[in-house]
Amino acid sequence: MTRLIDSSLEKLSTIMADMGDMAIKCISLATESYLDGIANSDKVHDLSDQIRQKYFQVEDLIFDMMLKYQPVADDFRMIRSCTEISYAYSRFGRYAYDITQLREVFGDISDCKNTPLLEISNKVKRMIQDAVLSFAELDIRKAERIQQDEEFIDHIYKSRLPTLIKSNDTKCALAEALLLRYLERIGDHAVYMSDAVNYIITGKHKPTQKQIDSHTK
Fold it and tell me: pTM for the full model?
């Protein structure tokens, strides 16, 4: 039987799906801007602004749902987590725009030695895709993989910094340090998002291995 809250939940789901698609596109355009020297700043700025506007839509819709329906149990966990996840999407957009600004400040930096950055950029893009899919499909396995990828990004970030400090190429070293910092922060928000997905499914932000195994897809 259709409940009064269902139409609002469906609207919320549609907005969240749109935000996820735009967040993935933002990050792809931003890394393309840095690695390939393509001027994508305006496109990413527009997308980031659209994500931010949808974040406000989500906040207003959730406030309205809480007042009208006073949700409990599964509905409450979903609605509460949408607040955290929509915020993560808005941060993805903001950091993507910050990355495109590196090209504006440093110029074309595609000639810098970017081999480590290509690997970490691909890892971050996969994290965002996993984060979006784990929420859309409520797949706790994908949420768990995000945590593992974040450890890899932290390792690259910490291991590259000493090398960059000793570098004689100040321009490339500074640009890479900033890019790594933005990617590391994006990874952190992907983890917060996976915690929110875990909470929707299990009621715990950090579920046990038994709880993860019981939700294998």
Answer: 0.90
